[in-house]
Every structure is written in structure tokens, then in C-alpha cells.
Write a structure and sequence with these properties.
The complex is a heterodimer of chains A (about 230) and B (about 300). Chain A is α/β, with parallel strands linked by helices and about 230 residues long. Helix content of chain A is about 35%, strand content about 25%.
Chain lengths: ~230, ~300
């Protein structure tokens, strides 16, 4: 369980998160949606402890960061590090020993090649494989479907289902609403630094409609008809 | 075209400012460092006139990188692009050429200019397309990635050690050993991405000790063959080699802790001055190393708490 109480974060005078309160339960999948710049990544970075913030973030497993797998929107890779070495590095960081790396390579990545030569989707899959190998209890997946091919999309969805069945807590952000409605138990809409709407499976369509209304509105008319 | 070069100047100035020094001071220090290192190389080795152009080329060849040049071509017309490439290559080779002229190495200087001009009309992938396997894969990443970027320098160091033995020149051997350590120190010059530090489930102290332990282990792996070779042929000078190897370990400790003492930023002027002090006056490391270590623990605390 991760509990966030009165979380606020600002960069200078710009308030990005404003008094966020939410509880992420074990064995559940949560979707966080919102426009670009709504604060999703900042929220994730706060949970991970990569940002200073006001408020409290507690978890049932302490310290949270040592049990958290964080998939960044745009994972960073050192120049000239191979895929295998990247996985080894992330496993060493958590004292995890993997004897047969290749059998764990479920995305069939070319692990002997340099990771910085991978395509966007391959990089994402490598980073995801790494945090899965770390045997974390919590997972934050920031745009896990970005740039990933359709077969791997299906695999990622299955991975999320599997993590849920193993009692892990998964928090996802995605701009593809259907991927969230397939996997999430709850979806929260982040707007102006606060959760403006939250819904369980029954209310997903309401959130989608709200996003369409506020995101699209009459913008197309303004763009195309003037 | 003028805009392009003034932009390059602004970017360079910005990098120097980010490192904590005013651009004019930065240019002055870089000039002093360049002249100092060049004089040192020529003082230490008879082969310097042959090594020197290769060092120059290591700075020039990245300018021929395909993607960079495709971008330049799309921004400027063909004619302007060619002029930019020629001017860039000449500008980078100029300090090396002037030093070679100062050393009355006219033929080598001329050859360097010609090769620089030739490189200006050719583009190529500066990164090898195949993977270089290293023995450092078990504990990535600094030595694994660093080795791939510097294997030529290490090859030169090993070659110099063999030459040192064959011509019975102990000083050249010492230079080769120092070169190996200098190369390994360069692996720690850049700050580590915060995500990788964050990923570790260690305390800051343990994190730093692990980094230092790995650096000592892997630098020994690179330096030992060379040190043993020199020991075998210059047995009476073994104690000097031991001092150099020990100093290399201390410097590794210093640079690793200096790197994290400004984390997540790059090392600044203060770290640079203290590291230079360690090199000029090695006993200063007794104070500087613990200072850097404590500063690093403080800087890492928020992310490894």
C-alpha cells in the first residue's frame, strides 16, 4: 500500500501538484490521466523520492524506493552499454542475482547490442524488463505503451494483469485510454494539480468523456473553420 | 554561417559557466592545461610527435559524425556546409598544429592539416557498429562503457610499455602506467544519471564504497599486466611502480567522491581545483578524499535515503 497525504509540489511560483490525497492498494492497478504538463510525471517522481515535496508519502514496505520499479517516459541509457549490462546494472543495484538473463528476455531484445542503438520501443521494453527482474512490490509505469509495437502492447497488458494477480501495486499513465480501461481498477484524472475526477471500472467512460470535452471542446472548429 | 559559429561560442561559454567558471578564465585554464600537457608529453616521450597527431584526430573525427552532418546539411546549403566543416576541422586542429610547429615538427604538422582537411569532406559513423566485449560486464557500467570509448588509448599505453621495456626506458614505462590510470579516471568525469543512483538500495556510504571497490578492482585488471611487465624488467624500481599504483587508487577514490560531491550536477571549479591539488601535492589527498566523501554522502542522502 502507498498512501499520499496532502502532497503539494511547486517549481518556483508554478504550483504543479496541489494537496493530492490518494491511497494505492496492494493488488490493484491505477491509471493516472491528464493533459501534457498536468503533473503526472511530477507525481511519479515525488512517489519515487526523486523530488522534494510538501506532504506525506508512506508505504507498507519501507523504504518505498527500494521496492519500487520506475519506468520513465523516456528511459536514459549510457552510451555504449549493452542491453545485458543494463539489466545487470539494475539487478546489481537491488542485490538481485539473475543466472540466466537470456531466458528472461521475453521481448527478444538483442541484449548484446548497445542499448542506445535500440529503437524507442525497444528501449522501453528493456527498461521494463529491468524493473520486472528487480522483483519490486510497486510499479510506476510512465507511458509504458509509447513507441511499442502492437504485439508488445499485448504483452505489456498481460504483464500488468500478471503483476496484479501477484498482489503487486501498479500505477500507470497513458495517453491511450483503451489501454488503461483494459488494465486499471481505478482511473484518476489529474487537472490543475489536483485529482478532478476518479472512477472505478463503471465510471471510466465518464472520465473519457470529460477528457474529450475539456481536451477537444470546440478547439477543432477554432483551428479548421476560421 | 557567422550565426552558427557565434552559437557554438555561446554554447561553449555556457558549458564553462555551468562548470562554475567565467568563460575568459575557462579559456585561459584550458590553454594552460593544453600547453602543459603537450609539453609534458614531449618531455616524457620520444614518440610524442607521432602520438600527438592521433590525439588531435581524436578531437577532429567526432565532427564527421553522420547524423550531425546531415543536420548541418539540412540547415545550410551545400556550399556553406562545406565551408563550415573546413573551418571547424581547421579550428580544432589549429592548437595542435601550432604546437607541432613550435616543436619544429613541420612534416607532421603539415600532415595533420592535410588529414584534417580530408576529414572535412568525409562523413562516417564515429561509433563502431559492433559490440566490443569487455571483462567488466559483471559490475557495469563505468568500466564497461569507458573501456569501449578508450580502448585505443589503452592499446597505446600497452604499446608504450612494450617499447619502454625494449629500449630500457623506465620513464616511458611510468608514463604508460600513468596513462592507464588517467584513462580510468576519465570514466568517472561525468555525473551519473539520477535514475541509476536512485535505483540502488544502498546507503550513500555503501554506495560510494562499492563504487570505489569496483574501480580499484577493475583498474587493477587494466594496470596489472603493464605494472607486472615493468616490474619484471625494472625490478629495482618496483617501489616506484607500487607508489604509482597506490597513487592511482587514491586518485580513483578522489575522482569518484568528487563526482558525487556535486551530484546531480557536473563537477565544478572547486572540485577541479581540489583534484588538481591532489595531483600536484599527493599528500593533500589525505584531507581532500575524506572531505569529498563526506560531501558526497550529504549530496546522495536525499536520493538514497
Amino acid at each position: 500500500m502507498i498512501e499520499i497525504q496532502n502532497l503539494s509540489k511547486s517549481y518556483g511560483s508554478k504550483q504543479v501538484l496541489n494537496d493530492i490525497n490518494i491511497r494505492f492498494e496492494q493488488g490493484k492497478v491505477y491509471g493516472i490521466v491528464g493533459e501534457n504538463g498536468a503533473g503526472k510525471t511530477t507525481l511519479f517522481r515525488c512517489i519515487a523520492g526523486l523530488e522534494n515535496y510538501a506532504g506525506n508519502i508512506t508505504s507498507s514496505t519501507q523504504p518505498l524506493k527500494n521496492h519500487l520499479g520506475l519506468l520513465l517516459t523516456d528511459p536514459f541509457f549510457f552510451s555504449k552499454i549493452t542491453g545485458k549490462e543494463y539489466l545487470q546494472l539494475l539487478c546489481n543495484a537491488r542485490n538481485i542475482t539473475i543466472t540466466d538473463m537470456h531466458s528472461r528476455n521475453i521481448f527478444d531484445l538483442p541484449l548484446e547490442q548497445y542499448a542506445d542503438t535500440y529503437s524507442t520501443g525497444m528501449k522501453k521494453k528493456l527498461a521494463l524488463t529491468a524493473i520486472l527482474l528487480q522483483q519490486n512490490q510497486y510499479f510506476i509505469l510512465d507511458e509504458p505503451y509509447n513507441g511499442v509495437d502492437i504485439q508488445s502492447n499485448i504483452v505489456i497488458t498481460e504483464i500488468i494483469h500478471k503483476l496484479k494477480s501477484l498482489g503487486k501495486t501498479v500505477i500507470i499513465s497513458s495517453h491511450i485510454f483503451s489501454t488503461l480501461s483494459d488494465t486499471c481498477d481505478e482511473i484518476h484524472l489529474l487537472k490543475n494539480g489536483q485529482f478532478s475526477m476518479s472512477a472505478g471500472k463503471d465510471g471510466f467512460s465518464l472520465i473519457e468523456n470529460e477528457m474529450k470535452t475539456s481536451g477537444v471542446g470546440n478547439k477543432l472548429e477554432r483551428l479548421l473553420l476560421q | 554561417m557567422k550565426d552558427y559559429f557565434s552559437l557554438q561560442l555561446r554554447l561553449t561559454n555556457r558549458k564553462l559557466q555551468d562548470a562554475g567558471m567565467p568563460p575568459l578564465v575557462g579559456y585561459l585554464l584550458l590553454t594552460i592545461a593544453f600547453i602543459g600537457l603537450s609539453l609534458f608529453l614531449f618531455y616524457k616521450s620520444n614518440y610524442a610527435p607521432y602520438i600527438y597527431p592521433f590525439i588531435a584526430l581524436s578531437f577532429i573525427t567526432p565532427l564527421s559524425e553522420v547524423r550531425r552532418n546531415e543536420f548541418l546539411k539540412t540547415c545550410f546549403g551545400d556550399k556553406k556546409y562545406r565551408t563550415i566543416r573546413l573551418l571547424e576541422n581547421l579550428a580544432v586542429s589549429l592548437p595542435f598544429t601550432l604546437f607541432l610547429l613550435f616543436k619544429v615538427e613541420f612534416i607532421v604538422a603539415g600532415a595533420l592539416v592535410l588529414v584534417s582537411l580530408a576529414l572535412a569532406i568525409s562523413n562516417f559513423n564515429t561509433q563502431l557498429q559492433f559490440t566490443i566485449h569487455t571483462p567488466f560486464g559483471k559490475k557495469p557500467y563505468e568500466f564497461a562503457t569507458g573501456f569501449r570509448g578508450t580502448y585505443l588509448a589503452l592499446f597505446i599505453a600497452y604499446a608504450l610499455a612494450i617499447i619502454a621495456v625494449s629500449v630500457s626506458n623506465f620513464n616511458l614505462g611510468v608514463f604508460a602506467l600513468l596513462m592507464v590510470f588517467a584513462v580510468t579516471l576519465s570514466y568517472y568525469a561525468q555525473p551519473e544519471h539520477e535514475y541509476y543512483v536512485w535505483s540502488h538500495s544502498y546507503t550513500p556510504t555503501l554506495f560510494l564504497l562499492n563504487k570505489i571497490k569496483t574501480a580499484i578492482l577493475y583498474s587493477t585488471f587494466l594496470a596489472a599486466p603493464l605494472a607486472l611487465l615493468l616490474c619484471a624488467f625494472f625490478f629495482n624500481q618496483t617501489y616506484i611502480l607500487l607508489v604509482i599504483v597506490s597513487a592511482g587508487y587514491v586518485y580513483l577514490g578522489c575522482i569518484i567522491t568528487a563526482r558525487y560531491s556535486s551530484f546531480p550536477h557536473e563537477m565544478g571549479l572547486a572540485q577541479g581545483i581540489l583534484l588538481a591539488l591532489c595531483i600536484v601535492a599527493p599528500p593533500a589527498a589525505i584531507l581532500i578524499l575524506p572531505y569529498f566523501f563526506n560531501r558526497s554522502v550529504e549530496r546522495l542522502q536525499p536520493i538514497l535515503k
